Amino acid sequence: MAATFASRCSRVGRSLFGGLSNSSPGLFTTSHEMTCSNYFSQQQRTFIQMRTVLKVVDNSGAKKVMCIHALKGKKGARLGDMIKASVKEAHPNGKVKKGSTVFAVVVRAAMPKGRCDGSEVKFDDNAVVLVDKQGQPIGTRVFGPVPHELRQKKHVKILTLAGHIA
After folding, report:
1. The CATH number of the domain where 130 resides is what?
2. Nearest to 102 by CA among 139, 154, 146, 153
3. Residues 70 and 140 both lie in one domain
4. What pTM value is reported for the model?
5. How many angstroms separate the CA atoms of 47 and 73, rounded?
Protein backbone atom coordinates (compact mmCIF):
# COMPACT_ATOMS: atom_id res chain seq x y z
CA MET A 1 0.00 0.00 0.00
CA ALA A 2 2.74 2.45 0.98
CA ALA A 3 4.82 1.53 -2.06
CA THR A 4 1.98 2.15 -4.49
CA PHE A 5 1.15 5.41 -2.72
CA ALA A 6 4.78 6.53 -2.96
CA SER A 7 5.00 5.58 -6.62
CA ARG A 8 1.82 7.48 -7.42
CA CYS A 9 3.12 10.55 -5.64
CA SER A 10 6.48 10.38 -7.40
CA ARG A 11 4.86 10.10 -10.84
CA VAL A 12 3.71 13.69 -10.66
CA GLY A 13 7.29 14.78 -11.32
CA ARG A 14 8.65 15.78 -7.90
CA SER A 15 11.07 13.97 -5.69
CA LEU A 16 9.68 12.14 -2.69
CA PHE A 17 12.54 13.35 -0.52
CA GLY A 18 12.65 16.96 -1.73
CA GLY A 19 13.55 19.80 0.58
CA LEU A 20 11.48 22.75 1.72
CA SER A 21 9.74 24.65 -1.01
CA ASN A 22 9.67 28.45 -1.09
CA SER A 23 6.18 28.52 -2.57
CA SER A 24 4.66 26.23 0.04
CA PRO A 25 2.01 27.80 2.30
CA GLY A 26 3.35 26.29 5.55
CA LEU A 27 6.81 26.69 7.00
CA PHE A 28 7.55 22.96 7.24
CA THR A 29 5.60 21.68 4.22
CA THR A 30 7.77 19.66 1.87
CA SER A 31 7.27 19.16 -1.83
CA HIS A 32 6.35 15.54 -1.04
CA GLU A 33 3.45 16.65 1.14
CA MET A 34 2.28 19.12 -1.49
CA THR A 35 2.45 16.49 -4.24
CA CYS A 36 0.51 13.91 -2.22
CA SER A 37 -2.10 16.46 -1.17
CA ASN A 38 -2.54 17.42 -4.84
CA TYR A 39 -3.00 13.73 -5.67
CA PHE A 40 -5.72 13.29 -3.07
CA SER A 41 -7.48 16.51 -4.07
CA GLN A 42 -7.79 15.09 -7.59
CA GLN A 43 -9.54 12.01 -6.19
CA GLN A 44 -12.50 13.98 -4.78
CA ARG A 45 -16.01 12.86 -5.54
CA THR A 46 -18.00 14.82 -8.10
CA PHE A 47 -21.61 15.57 -8.87
CA ILE A 48 -24.00 13.10 -10.48
CA GLN A 49 -23.54 14.12 -14.09
CA MET A 50 -24.25 12.80 -17.56
CA ARG A 51 -23.28 9.13 -18.11
CA THR A 52 -23.01 8.36 -14.39
CA VAL A 53 -24.22 4.83 -13.63
CA LEU A 54 -26.38 4.67 -10.49
CA LYS A 55 -27.88 1.85 -8.45
CA VAL A 56 -31.68 1.68 -8.11
CA VAL A 57 -32.77 1.05 -4.51
CA ASP A 58 -36.51 0.40 -4.93
CA ASN A 59 -38.62 -2.49 -6.19
CA SER A 60 -39.63 -0.90 -9.50
CA GLY A 61 -37.81 -3.54 -11.52
CA ALA A 62 -34.68 -1.66 -12.57
CA LYS A 63 -31.24 -2.54 -11.22
CA LYS A 64 -28.96 0.09 -12.76
CA VAL A 65 -29.65 3.34 -14.58
CA MET A 66 -27.43 5.81 -16.41
CA CYS A 67 -27.97 9.53 -15.96
CA ILE A 68 -28.98 11.29 -19.17
CA HIS A 69 -29.61 14.76 -17.81
CA ALA A 70 -29.65 16.50 -14.43
CA LEU A 71 -32.87 18.50 -14.39
CA LYS A 72 -31.70 21.27 -12.06
CA GLY A 73 -28.29 22.89 -11.93
CA LYS A 74 -25.56 23.22 -14.50
CA LYS A 75 -22.91 20.98 -12.98
CA GLY A 76 -25.04 18.02 -12.03
CA ALA A 77 -27.34 16.55 -9.42
CA ARG A 78 -26.85 16.17 -5.67
CA LEU A 79 -28.96 14.64 -2.89
CA GLY A 80 -32.68 15.11 -3.51
CA ASP A 81 -32.36 16.37 -7.10
CA MET A 82 -34.31 14.84 -9.98
CA ILE A 83 -32.55 13.38 -12.99
CA LYS A 84 -33.61 11.82 -16.25
CA ALA A 85 -32.09 8.37 -16.69
CA SER A 86 -31.99 5.40 -19.03
CA VAL A 87 -32.48 1.90 -17.62
CA LYS A 88 -29.40 -0.25 -18.28
CA GLU A 89 -30.26 -3.40 -16.27
CA ALA A 90 -33.71 -4.58 -15.21
CA HIS A 91 -35.47 -7.59 -13.72
CA PRO A 92 -37.49 -9.51 -16.33
CA ASN A 93 -40.87 -9.16 -14.55
CA GLY A 94 -40.50 -5.60 -13.28
CA LYS A 95 -42.61 -2.52 -13.98
CA VAL A 96 -39.72 -0.84 -15.78
CA LYS A 97 -38.07 -2.38 -18.84
CA LYS A 98 -34.50 -2.15 -20.08
CA GLY A 99 -33.93 0.78 -22.42
CA SER A 100 -36.80 2.91 -21.14
CA THR A 101 -36.28 6.53 -20.08
CA VAL A 102 -37.38 7.35 -16.54
CA PHE A 103 -37.22 10.12 -13.96
CA ALA A 104 -35.35 9.46 -10.72
CA VAL A 105 -34.51 11.17 -7.42
CA VAL A 106 -30.96 10.92 -6.04
CA VAL A 107 -31.23 9.42 -2.55
CA ARG A 108 -27.56 8.55 -1.93
CA ALA A 109 -24.52 10.37 -3.29
CA ALA A 110 -20.83 9.79 -2.70
CA MET A 111 -20.21 13.56 -2.71
CA PRO A 112 -20.31 15.04 0.82
CA LYS A 113 -23.24 17.33 1.63
CA GLY A 114 -22.92 19.74 4.53
CA ARG A 115 -25.70 20.00 7.08
CA CYS A 116 -26.71 23.11 8.98
CA ASP A 117 -25.40 21.69 12.28
CA GLY A 118 -21.87 21.48 10.84
CA SER A 119 -21.79 17.75 10.09
CA GLU A 120 -21.54 16.16 6.65
CA VAL A 121 -23.49 13.30 5.15
CA LYS A 122 -21.73 11.11 2.60
CA PHE A 123 -22.57 7.63 1.28
CA ASP A 124 -20.45 4.90 -0.26
CA ASP A 125 -22.43 4.67 -3.49
CA ASN A 126 -24.68 6.66 -5.79
CA ALA A 127 -28.29 5.49 -5.67
CA VAL A 128 -31.68 6.65 -6.97
CA VAL A 129 -35.38 5.94 -6.56
CA LEU A 130 -37.46 5.90 -9.74
CA VAL A 131 -40.39 8.33 -9.84
CA ASP A 132 -43.01 9.47 -12.34
CA LYS A 133 -43.30 13.00 -13.75
CA GLN A 134 -45.23 14.21 -10.70
CA GLY A 135 -42.53 12.92 -8.34
CA GLN A 136 -44.44 9.93 -6.95
CA PRO A 137 -42.31 6.76 -6.55
CA ILE A 138 -42.92 3.91 -8.99
CA GLY A 139 -41.93 1.21 -6.50
CA THR A 140 -43.54 0.43 -3.16
CA ARG A 141 -40.38 -0.16 -1.08
CA VAL A 142 -37.10 1.73 -0.68
CA PHE A 143 -34.03 -0.20 0.47
CA GLY A 144 -31.17 1.18 2.54
CA PRO A 145 -30.69 4.50 4.30
CA VAL A 146 -32.20 7.71 2.93
CA PRO A 147 -31.11 11.18 4.15
CA HIS A 148 -33.63 13.47 5.80
CA GLU A 149 -32.65 16.26 3.34
CA LEU A 150 -35.31 14.82 1.02
CA ARG A 151 -37.96 16.42 3.23
CA GLN A 152 -36.73 19.89 2.23
CA LYS A 153 -36.87 18.90 -1.45
CA LYS A 154 -40.56 17.81 -1.08
CA HIS A 155 -39.95 14.05 -1.51
CA VAL A 156 -41.86 13.03 1.62
CA LYS A 157 -43.36 9.92 -0.01
CA ILE A 158 -39.87 8.47 -0.50
CA LEU A 159 -39.14 9.06 3.18
CA THR A 160 -42.30 7.21 4.22
CA LEU A 161 -41.32 4.19 2.10
CA ALA A 162 -37.75 4.08 3.42
CA GLY A 163 -36.79 1.72 6.18
CA HIS A 164 -34.01 3.85 7.65
CA ILE A 165 -33.65 7.65 7.58
CA ALA A 166 -30.09 8.93 8.03
Report:
1. 2.40.150.20
2. 139
3. yes
4. 0.70
5. 10
Query: What does the alpha-carbon distance between residue 114 and residue 138 come to, in Å, rounded to a whole number?
Result: 29
| Helix (H/G/I), strand (E/B), else coil: 138 | coil
Rounded Cα gap, residues 134 and 82, in angstroms: 11
pLDDT in tens, 41-85: 444 567 888 899 999 999 999 999 999 998 877 788 888 899 999
Q: Are 108 and 129 in contact, with CB atoms under 8 Å apart?
A: no
Does residue 60 sit within a domain? yes
Domain that holds residue 7: 2-42
What is the spatial distance between Cα 83 and Cα 128, in angstroms, rounded to a whole number?
A: 9
Regarding whether 77 and 28 lie in a shared domain, the answer is: no
- Taken as a whole, the chain contains a residue count of 166
